[in-house]
Amino acid sequence: MADSATVRTDARRHHDPQARGFASDNYAGAHPEVLAALALANGGHQVAYGEDDYTGHLQRVMHSHFGSTAEAFPVFNGTGANVVALQALTDRWGAVICAESAHINVDEGGAPERMGGLKLLTVPTPDGKLTPELIDRQAFGWDDEHRAMPQVVSIAQNTELGTVYTPDEIRAICDHAHERGMKVHLDGARIANAAASLDVPMRTFTNTVGVDVLSFGGTKNGALFGEAVVVLNPDAVRAMKHLRKLSMQLASKMRFVSVQLEALLSRDLWLRNARQANAMAQRLAEGVRAIDGAEILYPVQANAVFARLPHDVGERLRKRFRFYYWDETAGDVRWMCAFDTTEDDVDAFIQALKEEMANSSAAK
Questions:
Q1: Would you list the DSSP string of 155-213?
Q2: Distance from first CA to last CA of the chain, Å, rounded?
Q3: I need a labelling partner for 60 at 20 to 30 A (CA). Which of 20, 72, 277, 294 fits?
Q4: 162 Cβ partners below 8 Å, 6+ apart?
Q5: What is the separation of C-alpha 221 from the centre of its chain, rounded to a whole number of angstroms?
Q6: How far is CA 128 from the centre of its chain?
Q7: What is the C-alpha separation between 276 and 345, in angstroms, rounded?
Q8: pLDDT digits (tens, 9 = 90+) for 136-148
Q9: Per-residue pLDDT tens over the stretch 41-63
Q10: pTM above the 0.70 mark?
């Protein structure tokens, strides 16, 4: 067999590696340290389906972040992590309380309901964050056979609107949910960004305050692919291994998911990446605030910036940099920063926004 350094490939580059956008942190590639870890895990034979050395070592790494009772179940993607986690926390007749803006409600194609077979009970929120009072709008009717039974509260950290819960806010939610016999799931697709924003360890707002199960995100923070369901409270779940397989989230070559999460978590790569993305979002928000006619909509607490622009400005600006409308009718847009976003990227975007605002029909 040829040495990896001499292996020939006919693959060609089909994109401009200098291109930058602000549409999603999923647009970024994989961090070089993650790619190096994948190469280290390659070669030779390892037992499939999670019995490999890398998945075993990942458990010890997770213990260092979330305590000795934490158990990680690597999966392919964030939707898969959420569906598996929520299935493990609910009965067939169970329901999940979440914010109306939650990713599981608006951005997963109905997967929790269609694939997971559970009901989402949504609550409107001003900033994407649930509170005990908001939860109580849906936390009722446990003995009513005509209503899906509320069994889980699902929150996202950070939220779909880029806001971040404090540890005390999550503790209040967990205490409130547990008092009512419900469990708590945390969608941590961007958990690293939240920890960087709060400047606390991830355990401070997860297992320490009562979260039962966590969907741990890697892809948005420098991984090539792969997330994990992290069970923080073993008494809260059932049949995780079976549910992962049933939900088509069991990777045969799991070592290549696990080694990426290990590369992020074994030292401080997860935190370095998140801090860079968050810092660039702050830089972007500061630049936008200085531009007349552009409005920041929510507190910028992680790596997302939500703004309102004149519609013609948004249309022209999107031809220069990729990003998405959040509410096209209102002119609301979302800009995301990634681990590889640079100051030059942000400054070029701000300059383009200034130019398009100067040309806006709304400003004339």
A1: EESS-TTS----HHHHHHHHHHHHHTT-EEEEEETTHHHHHHHHTS-GGGGTGGGT--E
A2: 68
A3: 277
A4: 128, 281, 298, 299, 300, 301, 302, 303, 304, 305, 306
A5: 9
A6: 14
A7: 13
A8: 999 999 999 999 9
A9: 999 999 999 999 999 999 999 99
A10: yes
